[in-house]
Structures are given as C-alpha cells and as structure tokens.
Amino acid sequence: QVQLVESGGGLVQPGGSLRLSCAASGSIFRINTMAWYRQAPGKQRELVAVIISDGRTNYGESVKGRFTISRDNAKNTVALQMNSLKPEDTAVYYCYANYNYALGSRSDWGMGTQVTVSS
Known about the structure:
- The protein is an all-beta fold.
- The protein is built from no helices and eleven strands.
- Strands 2, 4, 5, 6, 9, 10 and 11 form a seven-stranded mixed beta sheet that branches. Strands 1-3-8-7 form a four-stranded antiparallel beta sheet, with no helix packed on it.
- The chain is elongated.
- The N and C termini lie far apart (40 Å).
C-alpha cells in the first residue's frame, strides 16, 4: 500500500496564495494519475485538478486560471499552487493517486489538509 502525505494547508486571507504538496511513498512501480480533490462542510468531494503521467492537466471550473497542478515523476510528488484564493475555496484538500504496483493497480487517498480562506 502507498502512503500519500499532504502538506501546506493553513489559513490565508482572500486574494492570497498557498501551495499544497503531496508525497507518495511505498511499493510503487508507476504513478498514473495524481489529483487534488476538496470537500467543504456539507458538500460532496469535488475534483480540483488532475495531472496524468504525460503531464496533461484538467481543472475544475471554479479554479481554472487560479490554481496550477504540477508533478515530479522522479520524486512521486504532486503540488497544487493556489492563487487568488476565495472564501469558497475553504475545504479539506485531499491528494489522490492511481498507481501500478506488484499485484496490479489501485488508488489511494491522503488524509487531507485544511485550507481556510478568511479575513
């Protein structure tokens, strides 16, 4: 099983920036897809951004133009640069990875990191 550990959450004022990071460790042959999801209180978990192994990306409509996802395949890490943050971006942000290992492929989630946007 792979462990995904997020870091970088916190409290920021509207209009500010934060950078989230996620590191994957364990018996990984290849990480196929990495992504960030978020879940606000009382709402369903939603996709924020996804990046596949060749670097192609896709974003949720509400974050396009403000957030940027990137990955380092050599280090098995993924980052989310969040700019122009809004109060509605407040949520727990989860790292997701789909990967190949000795017995096939599977997906795992991190524990989440809180992002709060408030003045």
